[in-house]
């Protein structure tokens, strides 16, 4: 049985990827920052219903950027799916936006790639990037009029000090993508890397049990805040349903899916209606 090493399973996107991976009969080794977080996963309805038994186990990795932290835990793994990254939120970010966003995204990704290259059995690495990684976020007016295609990249990446968490997040995603591409070009490992670039992700967050958390964490708050009478600035991104994002991660593991590519995920064109248009780009 093939084993997936998964990061980010305690989050909105990663948990859905986690469920689909188990449904697809993979074994999953999920990295969590603290093992207490695995309790919420084990107590969740979808996991109870699946009852995966020994196909599911957790490893505690407090810091994905720590040198060598991932070397041993990748033993026996076939696929790495790297979803974890800090995203914007109304809570828990602090003042040092560079430390919060850039290191975990860029060094976390490079650390994982380096460790993966020490394991000959790893065939594919899937990384959750974002449309934010290829949009010129220094000029949103222009960006909203720009059609992105498979060759789009941004080289106007915001530099520190960052004035907002959105700015730091976008910079982190762009820098992580560029760093991973450069590393692959230089190192030429035996595995391929697939980058998944969703727009704003909406869909049920099955790990959130407190309604207040819905309004503070994750992208669902962009939808829900106006519903309860609050204000949220409009998002310049397109939208994509959570299930389509999770499916794309699992589809990317199939041998017939080309690697070393970017897959842009958005639903129904720039109006953001409908479900499931996936475009790939090299
Ligand atoms: N939501 C969207 O609209 C959207 C759009 C495009 C791309 N993405 C990408 O999708 C991925 C998941 O996002 P999400 O919406 O699921 O966010 P989320 O619900 O906040 O989940 C984030 C996950 O990453 C982990 N994480 C956060 N900071 C970390 C750090 N410094 N070190 C290690 N792990 C860390 C979290 O672990 P803890 O539980 O321990 O905090 C959690 O498992 C991210 O890479 C994000 O950039 C999301």
TrEMBL record:
InterPro entries: Epimerase_deHydtase, NAD(P)-bd_dom_sf, NAD(P)_dehydrat-like
Pfam families per the UniProt record, alphabetical: Epimerase (PF01370)
The entry's keywords: Oxidoreductase
Domain of life, per lineage: Eukaryota
Transmembrane segments: none
Sequence ranges assigned to domain NAD-dependent epimerase/dehydratase in this UniProt record: 4-255
Gene3D superfamilies linked to this entry: NAD(P)-binding Rossmann-like Domain
A molecular function (GO) term: oxidoreductase activity, acting on the CH-OH group of donors, NAD or NADP as acceptor
PANTHER family, per the entry: NAD DEPENDENT EPIMERASE/DEHYDRATASE (PTHR10366), STEROL-4-ALPHA-CARBOXYLATE 3-DEHYDROGENASE, DECARBOXYLATING (PTHR10366:SF564)
Family of this protein: Belongs to the NAD(P)-dependent epimerase/dehydratase family. Dihydroflavonol-4-reductase subfamily.
Protein name (record): NAD dependent epimerase/dehydratase
């Amino acid at each position: 049985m093939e084993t997936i090493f998964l990061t980010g399973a305690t989050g909105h996107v990663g948990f859905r990827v986690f469920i689909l991976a188990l449904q697809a009969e993979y074994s999953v080794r999920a990295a969590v920052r603290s093992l207490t977080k695995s309790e919420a996963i084990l107590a969740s309805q979808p996991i109870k219903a699946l009852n995966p038994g020994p196909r599911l186990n957790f490893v505690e990795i407090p810091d994905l950027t720590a040198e060598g932290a991932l070397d041993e835990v990748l033993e026996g793994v076939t696929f790495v799916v790297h979803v974890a990254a800090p995203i914007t939120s109304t809570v828990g970010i602090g003042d040092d936006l560079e430390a919060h966003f850039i290191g975990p995204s860029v060094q976390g990704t490079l650390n994982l790639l380096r460790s993966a290259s020490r394991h000959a059995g790893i065939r594919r690495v899937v990384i959750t990037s974002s449309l934010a990684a290829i949009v010129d976020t220094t000029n949103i007016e222009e960006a909203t009029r720009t059609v992105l295609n498979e060759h789009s990249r941004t080289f106007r990446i915001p530099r520190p000090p960052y004035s907002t968490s959105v700015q730091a997040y976008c910079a982190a995603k762009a820098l992580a993508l560029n760093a991973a591409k450069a590393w692959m070009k230089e190192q030429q490992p035996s595995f391929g890397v697939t980058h998944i670039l969703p727009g704003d992700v909406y869909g049920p967050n099955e790990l959130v049990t407190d309604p207040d958390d819905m309004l503070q964490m994750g992208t669902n708050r962009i939808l829900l805040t106006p519903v309860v009478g609050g204000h949220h600035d409009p998002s310049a991104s397109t939208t994509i349903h959570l299930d389509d994002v999770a499916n794309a991660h699992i589809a990317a593991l199939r041998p017939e899916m080309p690697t070393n590519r970017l897959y842009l995920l958005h639903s129904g064109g720039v109006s953001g209606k409908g479900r499931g248009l996936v475009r790939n780009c090299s």
